[in-house]
Design brief:
By secondary structure, the chain is of the alpha/beta class. The chain contains 15 helices and 13 strands.
Length: 341
């Protein structure tokens, strides 16, 4: 199941789902979307916090206004403040023109602060004042400006614990945590895995003509633990679409360590590990992936020596010539002596 197609400017931004948990969470999100209440979205990295924020905005009374998303992490304090508050021309060296900060850009719409727990304490204090007074002063200006935006925030941190340890302001925490929504890891939403994977195949049709999963791939997708959550799932699907031929994704294309048996003559695409026989014998800790990579490289090189053309080699290996060229390019990048393609 899913809510409308994914379009940030549409009235109902898409959330692809199939798990009962997500159905309940979206029902709550729909109700709070129709209010002006501040929402704090929690959950591990990669679970879809911004997708949920866009859904709330698209179903709110501010849906026709702007949706401004800002990741608060990994930026120096001065840059965070400048991006949020904006600046006047000449406010500092390099300020050659006026810049509208995100507080101003979000006026009439929604401001989404991702990783809000990473905000420096001084910026936290200034954000609290903006939320209380609904006004801000750009850098280099003495004239406060009014703004009316709906605030949504997200974090993968335990903000209550950060308050206890003095890393997050208590007053700001209670200002943000009016209506909390908590996303679960993907492994705890098993009903979402296959709908998401199918939607990703459609989204990335530009990569290849893949249209479906076979039963082995479906079993692997459901069996895998997904430590990287939805973000990891999308990475796996894109990589598999590059590797696979035809219109069907199989378990060997996914490259997932699920413990399930793989019954196929497909040769996995993995970077080879350069080892000699002596080191291999003395390295009992060599991983299965390393061993398979080495075996694949040796098989490809042996087949190329025994066949007159790459087309014939690909046929003998049971893969397309395009896949063989891709594998050879990977081998060359890893440092192996491979003839030019």
């Amino acid at each position: 199941m899913s809510e409308a197609l994914n379009n940030p400017n549409a009235k109902a931004a898409a959330v692809v789902y199939g798990d009962p948990f997500m159905a309940q969470l979206l029902a709550l999100a729909s109700r709070v979307a129709r209010t002006e209440v501040t929402v704090l979205i929690g959950g591990p990295s990669g679970t879809g916090k911004e997708v949920l924020a866009r859904y709330i905005h698209a179903n709110s009374l501010r849906a026709d206004g702007p949706f401004i998303a800002f990741n608060c992490a990994c930026l120096p304090e001065s840059m965070v403040e400048d991006l949020l508050f904006g600046h006047e021309k000449g406010a500092f060296t390099g300020a050659v023109q006026r810049f509208q900060g995100f507080f101003e850009q979000a006026d009439g719409g929604t401001l989404f602060l991702d990783e809000v727990g990473e905000l420096p304490l001084t910026v936290q204090a200034k954000l609290l004042r903006v939320l209380q007074e609904r006004e801000f002063t750009p850098l280099g200006s003495t004239k406060p400006q009014k703004t009316q935006f709906r605030l949504l925030a997200a974090t993968n941190r335990n903000l209550k614990g950060d308050v206890t340890q003095g890393r997050f302001r208590e007053d700001l925490y209670y200002r943000l945590n009016i209506f909390p929504l908590q996303l679960k890891p993907l492994r705890e939403r098993p009903g979402d895995i296959l709908p998401l994977a199918r939607a990703m195949v459609v989204r990335h049709q530009y990569i290849s003509g893949i249209r479906q999963f076979d039963e082995s791939a479906i079993a692997a997708l459901r069996a895998y633990d997904w430590p990287g959550n939805v973000r990891e799932l999308e990475n796996v699907i894109q990589r598999a679409m590059v590797i696979a031929d035809g219109h069907t994704l199989r378990v060997e294309h996914l490259g997932l360590d699920t413990g399930l048996p793989i019954e196929s003559n497909f040769i996995p695409v993995e970077l080879p590990v350069a080892v000699d026989s002596a080191s291999a014998e003395s390295s009992p800790s060599e991983s299965l992936a390393d061993w398979r990579s080495t075996q694949e490289a040796e098989l490809i090189m042996a087949t190329l020596r025994e066949t007159p053309t790459k087309l014939a080699a690909a046929a003998k290996l049971g893969i397309s010539e395009r896949t063989l060229r891709y594998k050879l390019a990977r081998l060359r990048e890893s440092g192996m002596a491979v003839a030019s393609l």
